[in-house]
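REQUEST FORM: STRUCTURE PREDICTION
Request ID: SP-0412
Submitted by: Lab K.M.
Chain count: 1
Length (residues): 235
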Amino acid sequence: MKEIILTVVVGLLLTIAGLFIEKCYFEENSCPIESMNETAPELSTYFKINYLYRSSGKGEPKQLKGDTLTTGDTYKIIFQPSTKKHVYIFQIDSANKITRLFPTTDFAKANKKNINPVKKTRKYFVPAKKWSFELDTTTGKETIYTIVSNKPDKNLEQQYAAMLAQQDNQTLQQRKVVRKEWNKAMKKRGVRNKLTQNNSKPIKWTEGEQKLATTLANLQKMCDGCVNIVNFKHK
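STATUS: Completed
RESULT:
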């Protein structure tokens, strides 16, 4: 008798599980497990981004990933957050000077909407949709740091303000030491450099008279406060 009851109970549970799985996978917005996963850090903080450059500001954009660029080459960053975030992008140039690339309120021609917090699924062009940054005549190593956080990062903003206030009165060697300290501090945040291509529709824009297009890459597991670091040479 006990065996019969156990068999009936197991069968009933399997039937319920089967109905749940069918409902979960074949009906939209009906899966509690999926809804829970959406709040998990490794799923909810994915970040779409691409670093692009064009030789002498001409031709099709190429992905910037450890390349060697020359004076007069142009570059820009396009990103699209999956959720409301605070994004900070800094560049330390060949003279070991730091510049904030995002938010872009420091640049006259920049998009005035490039401010924090960034909005879910909006496409952001840095510095702006119609123009790019251009490399000057100072050659050497260039590094771009992209930090994504859930809330305003006051500590990061203070670090940047302190470096900015002091660097004009420092020698190249002194700025080199400060650059190393900044890099160490960034790496302690946790570096996320794994970019994987996605099959989303190309993003299109016009720069000058040329129509351009690119796809964004998925920056995997971009945790709160983590940093994505891109280095390139300027010769």
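NOTES: The first strand starts at residue 47 and ends at 54.
Reviewed by: T.R.
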